[in-house]
What we know:
Layout: H1 7-16, H2 21-28, H3 32-39, H4 50-57, H5 61-66, E1 83-86, E2 93-96, E3 102-104, E4 107-109, E5 115-116, E6 123-128, E7 131-136, E8 146-152, E9 157-161, E10 169-173, E11 179-184, E12 188-192, H6 194-197, H7 207-218
Parallel strand pairs: 5-12
Antiparallel strand pairs: 1-2, 3-4, 6-7, 7-10, 8-9, 8-11, 11-12
Helix pairs in contact: 1-3, 2-3
Amino acid sequence: MNQYVTGTVIKELREKNNMTQLQLAEKLGVSDKCISKWERFRGMPDITLLEPIAKAFKISVTELISGNTIQNANVSANMLRSKFYVCPICGNAIHSMGEAEIHCHGIQLVPLEAEPTDESHRILIKRVEDEYYVRIDHSMTKEHYISFMAATSSNDMQMAKLYPEGRAEARFKIRGVRRIFLYCNRDGLFSIDPVKGIDGKESEHDDLQERRELEKGSR
């Protein structure tokens, strides 16, 4: 472990929670002098106290150790807040429902920022019964390929892993899908409203009306 909770972090969190050293000590079953030593860099909490300390401040152990609290509404589990991470070493694709601290191969990954699809990454979508058939005309060589596609709704996420020399296509259940993503190993993450991608026509659809019809059909 190359990081550990510092006295500065404990003091900041304690004051943020309007808690005295004595109050924190009582929650942890230690003396207030012990808390004072931590905050004055005269000692460090035992590893067995990390979880109780995090619990006292209502954060995760990861947040406690990193010193960065995650400010979001993850508790609502809204998939529309989805974040995607890709490891540059192994290509591992990771999904979270909000902000998170993700590590792979010793590297802290940053969330990918989705860009609107462009001419080189034009997603073509067809509705086939209760599914979206999604494809893209893109090279699928070992050097340049689409790594994954995903479809998100407010309470669901579907993800399809793709591989070099395979087909750049996937099928997703419609069920309220609001956004479709694809990740190119060279150019990054792209996304599109599925209605705008239907048959490649972006200007001939009334998004709201079309979505209502699609969601009604999926039900």
